[in-house]
User: Which sequence fits this backbone?
């Protein structure tokens, strides 16, 4: 089976890019990565079982949260399809439960990230703390935008090592397995496409192409 990737433009000449895009959207993420990207992993995942995730409808959200933040994993370059993504999340905590409220995942310039962070600030005014991973373009983003965007906090704190991706994920697996990380679903109980893709990236780790979602969630949960 020829391996294809949604982040590349080198498609099989018999099948144009839009064919793969339509195919990807019509099948499960597990079948897409196994059949079309040749990245077979167990259905229960190598580290994170998809069955561990919990879900919420917007109508079921608590009236108030104890804590809200933005958490960002910024790529060194993210303007082209083969680059890594800029990834951002809004997280809201109610006691032990953490709700994933919004996701930003784009190939774009840094100004678009800054605009998204400011836009989220108007929607979630209590999410003043914006956790920025201390690698790639994160430090430059803080230096450039700290006077225009409040609450930019580098992570990890000064003097602490970032640790491997596996160790960061392992630190938050108990929260996922314990049902304390909740993802949004539609009012009819179906899952938005980005939520399906989100679960799939965790299931594939460490065999997937990207891990930006994992980094952003891990640092946000550990900060909280």
Assistant:
């Amino acid at each position: 089976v020829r391996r294809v990737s949604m982040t590349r433009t080198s498609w099989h000449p018999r099948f144009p890019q839009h064919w793969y895009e339509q195919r990807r959207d019509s099948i499960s993420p597990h079948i897409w990565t196994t059949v079309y990207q040749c990245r077979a992993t167990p259905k229960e995942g190598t580290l994170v079982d998809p069955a561990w995730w919990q879900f919420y409808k917007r109508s079921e959200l608590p009236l108030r949260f104890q804590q809200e933040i933005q958490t960002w994993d910024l790529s060194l370059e993210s303007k082209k399809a083969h680059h890594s993504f800029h990834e951002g999340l809004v997280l809201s905590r109610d006691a032990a439960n953490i709700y994933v409220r919004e996701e930003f995942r784009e190939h774009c310039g840094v100004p678009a990230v800054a605009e998204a962070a400011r836009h989220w600030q108007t929607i979630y005014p209590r999410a003043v703390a914006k956790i920025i991973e201390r690698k790639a373009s994160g430090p430059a983003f803080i230096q450039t935008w700290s006077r225009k965007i409040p609450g930019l906090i580098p992570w990890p704190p000064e003097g602490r090592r970032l640790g491997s991706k596996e160790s960061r994920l392992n630190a938050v697996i108990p929260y996922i397995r314990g049902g304390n990380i909740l993802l949004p679903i539609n009012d009819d109980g179906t899952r938005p496409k980005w939520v399906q893709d989100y679960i799939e990236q965790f299931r594939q780790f460490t065999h997937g192409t990207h891990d930006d979602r994992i980094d952003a969630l891990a640092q946000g949960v550990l900060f909280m």
Remarks:
- Residues 1-11, 26-32 have pLDDT under 50 and may be disordered.
- The beta strands are 54-57, 67-73, 86-94, 97-106, 130-133, 152-155, 181-185.
